Amino acid sequence: MSAAVTRNAGPRAMLPQWATLPVVFGGIIVLLWVVVGITIPLWTPYDPTMLAGGRFQPPNASHWLGTDALGRDVLTRTLYGVRHSLPIAALVIFCAVVIGGTLGAIAGFVGGLVDSIIMRLVDVTLSFPPILLAMAVTAALGPGLGNAAIAMVIVWWPIYARLMRAQVLSVREREHVEAAIAAGATRPRVLTKHILPLCWSPIIVNATMDFGQVVLLAASLSFIGLGAVPPTPEWGQMISDGALHFYRWWIAAGPGIAILSIVLGFNFLGDGLRDFLDPRSK
Amino acid sequence: MTTYIVRRLIAMPLLLLGVITVAFLLTYFTAADPLTSIIGERQMNNPAVVEAARERWGLDRSLPERYLIYLGNLVTGDMGTSFRTRQPVAQDLMVRLPATLELVIAAMFLGTIFGVVLGVLAARFRDGPIDNIARLFALVGASAPVFWSGLLVLFIFSVQLGWLPGPGRIDTRAVAPPFVTGFYTVDALLAGDWAGFRSVLMHLVLPASVLGWTVTGIVSRMVRASMLDVLSQEYILAARAKGAGPLRVLIHHALRNAMLPTLTILGFSFAYLITGAILTETIFSWPGIGSYAVAAARGLDHPAIVGVTIVGGAAFLISNLLTDIAYALVDPRVKLSQQESS
Prior knowledge:
Chain A has helices spanning 2-8, 21-43, 74-110, 112-125, 130-141, 145-172, 175-182, 187-195, 200-224, 235-244, 250-277. Chain A is mainly alpha-helical. The N and C termini of chain A lie close together (9 Å). Chains A and B meet through α4, α5, α6, α9 and α10 of A and α1, α6, α7, α12 and α13 of B.
């Protein structure tokens, strides 16, 4: 521990404590992808779904990552892919946090039978390997990116329900809550004004760490053929195209590196945040 | 401690029933008519065929009736008949299970060895370049999509370099070893077929490495943490003082004690491996349960989807149970916090 303190007092003493190398590195990767996603239509010379040149061109000066089986530019499609991956991951995480958080808060605050029912539902949902549950749900709803997103919310909400319930249970015992109840605050008011505001931080950290996993699972579902449908420039879908012609390695290389970099970015972020928040793991 | 384990054991069958029920309901509330995948789209306009198929596959019964029939059949090991292969699902799964187990065990073996080596090195050279490289290697393994890294290693080691064979469990021209256990490695050895054994082993290297890499990070992180824990203890100092060499202290004194907590995460990594196996098998044309699951999901083969989901859920439940029990045995502190959260 003392070694860590002296190290931090070095040239980096001016930086905030959370700004470790992994966090900054991961943050830059994620930020770059966000910028690419927003500005991409402004500066690519090709259209992601239109013919851009001959088929199966290896990487060259006009197509840096080559072209695919239909003569579309792989780099353009890869960069456009982030416009599917990130919004879907954000949507899935948001819905999972809202649904799981609400149910977890109710379970922890109300207790009794309601708690039992919600938590048994959580237990059963967490009993499935995530990808298998997501596959079964998507197969039942019918393939498509929207249904894959619903499936992923079903996979992820219990994690937040469990987290939120544990938080509510511990905050509920604090003295300021007792004081609020003694002062005559109604139960919904106690929950929303006095308990919930203190419950969010671990959930937000967890959500950041899960982002990469959601991107990965979304791409996996598309790769299997249950997510995005052609000609959507979605990374998993593109790798699945590339697998058909795997002698032409460049077709899958772009989306593969894209997934790797974005998941790595979020993992660096999460890893660094965890080190900062939980010094024991250091 | 015992009450905790007993409670977990009692919860098991209930959770399993929950898993079965959810898996069953999922396919009941499906958007697509399963009849389309049974009789094909062209026959859907033929009322006689539709009616016959409905009756034949029990689709004319009510939901509770179908659920009870399914449960009853499940008890006798009957998971229904696959729409796609027209074989009993349980039989399909039994035939494919050894292939998946062989892959997962090989992956776990490779992943654990690499993870332990990386973890020991990272702990020994803490915060140095080796620690950082080990961490990066582990993070990349956990971040790379196996369905791409699989393609990449196939291209590099099989197509370009020609060092290792392509997809599949055995050479396409070779005959599978006579069935004894279903594990091709074991069966080839039992048959005394050395060339076959070598071929099977070579086919395992790439998929097992790709899959094993995904858990290297979990193992190395755990080994590193518990090695650091052990290395700071006094008996290590005593061993050094007695004049034991650095390697001997590291392996003989430290690693032996650091391994116990590490063993508990093997169950946890098993959960990762199930996920990874589904995608790895698809890339490597591995005739296991994973590729069966994918084919079933693509083909809307509902009996097969329910069967695979139940088997996967059961495997997941058991590995989680074993992990939790192992944790509770190794670290009594864990027990309390888990009781609170469940």
